[in-house]
Amino acid sequence: MQFLTRAALCALALSVSFPALADTLVDNVDGITVDDAGEIKRFTGIVFDDEGRITQVLERGDDRPSTDFAVDGDGRVMLPGMIDAHVHVMDIGFAALTLDLSDTTSLEGALAKIKQFAEENPGRPWILGRGWNQEKWGLGRFPTAAELDSVVSDRPVWLERADNHANWANTVAMDRAGISAATMDPEGGKVIRDASGNPSGVFVDNAIALVGDSVPKPRPADRDAAFTKAQEVLLTNGITAVADMGTPMEDWQTFRRAGDLGTLNIRIMSYADSIEAMELIGGPGPTPWLYDDKLRLVGVKLYLDGALGSRGAVLKEPYSDAPNTRGLPLLTPAQLRNRMSRAALDNFQTAIHAIGDAANADVLFAIEELNETYKGDRRWRIEHAQIVDPADLQKFGEYGIIASMQPLHQTSDREMAEARLGPNRLGGAYAWRSVLEAGGQLAFGSDAPVEPADAFAGIAVAISRVDENGEPFGGWRAEETVSREDALRAFTADAAFAGFAEGRFGRLIVGERADFLLVDRDPFLSSPGEIRETEIEQVWVGGNRVR
């Protein structure tokens, strides 16, 4: 047997006279995929052609065809490549190349890490990073500029919260941006202030731009480096395709450069970060699939509210731990409907960020209203759908709405969600099974870099509702677990469907791309803890081994 990558086959074709590329058999595997009926199917081998499309799926006892190349799977488990239905691709790369505070468990620990990073990078004009979480620190409040000043006072520091909905600045950064007590809160944003009304260093949702607009923009070379790193992170975790939620023109051009240079190794279903970017990139409608089904602008991402952690998620009733607020609406009902309508006019898909129960209700009713005008296969998406009033859940089924949800948010947010909502408003919290029972559809993701791009950890949580330590015993609101079959589909076939990619990738069936993993264990025969420890031994995209 000859084990060759597609690149090696191309080189071989240039040096000899026989046909350039030929069929490849990957045999002796314990294969698991989703069939045409959405059921789990077992197989023992696949054949793909020179375009990386599957031509045969072989079961035990089937005759093996004669192919030019064969790969012995050594009995390993073959799975479809994982699809993360909600990531921020470039943020993954930039997060890996800047200061990462996601592992800090106290303010003191974070400050020590910030100080060390600044000392190790004396030439950086700004100290940039992300991942802080005051809830994880047990702080009971937002951190302050003065606390940042205590470790870095000679350069601006600008650090994104773990949920991407608040940023923390030191005094130099605020001075560069001209922030003062006279700075007003923008619509849909909040400047956190001290008792005297002075900005204290944290900016929530639309207020982030008050300082963020002063941060130097990455150069094209910086973006290319970040994208290279993002692809490395994703492929290492067995993620072969993603939905990029909020693609600005600069990121789209980064993806295009990689495609032009032949270095685009993941598949990206892109959602523009604004109506304006949607029009610039797509023009009269969604783009065609580019680079052998590796890139397409599908639609637009809209933000309706913020996050629970920064109390920007819009709730029907006040926050239990902050009774003076119900959150920060980022769009009015009219603005939401106008943007959804504009996208639908040209057949762009809309993916709408909604976390609080009031925000989710607004999206659900907007879909109900617009569905009368914009008929056909719209596949309306709600991103996160974390807190839904149980009375509103049936609308997911009535309109075939896709709930694009992130299992790891449930374990990270559990205690915070209990504090924000109180014990009596959790009936529709992270309600995966309820969405399915209502007739809605699930697409699972990670929201990376907010959470790790780890589909196997996501599957483990989806079937157990416990964290990496097995807590809480029996699972948090365990009635909302889903089956292993549902969890695998939500990270593969159903995630592809959510981005209009069915028939191209997501299932190891005839006609789709040969995107697959070889792993060391069967997720249907492993405990949730064992699934988390899955070793990804090989990653293939379109018939090419990329890891």
List the main descriptive attributes of the protein structure presented here.
eight-stranded mixed sheet; 18 helices; 547 residues; alpha/beta; eight-stranded parallel sheet; globular
Can you characterise this structure?
This protein has 547 residues and is an alpha/beta fold. It contains 18 helices and 22 strands. The strands form three sheets. Strands 1, 2, 3, 4, 5, 20, 21 and 22 form an eight-stranded mixed β-sheet that branches. It is globular, with a radius of gyration of 24 Å. The chain starts with 5 loop residues before the first helix and ends with a strand. The N terminus is likely disordered.
Q: Which class do the helix and strand fractions yield?
A: alpha/beta
Tell me the Rg in angstroms.
Answer: 24 Å
**Stretches where pLDDT falls below 50 for ≥5 residues?**
1-20
Helix percent reads 25-40%
The rounded distance between the terminal residues' Cα atoms is 20 Å
Number of strands: 22
Main beta-sheet strand count, sense and barrel state: 8 strands, mixed
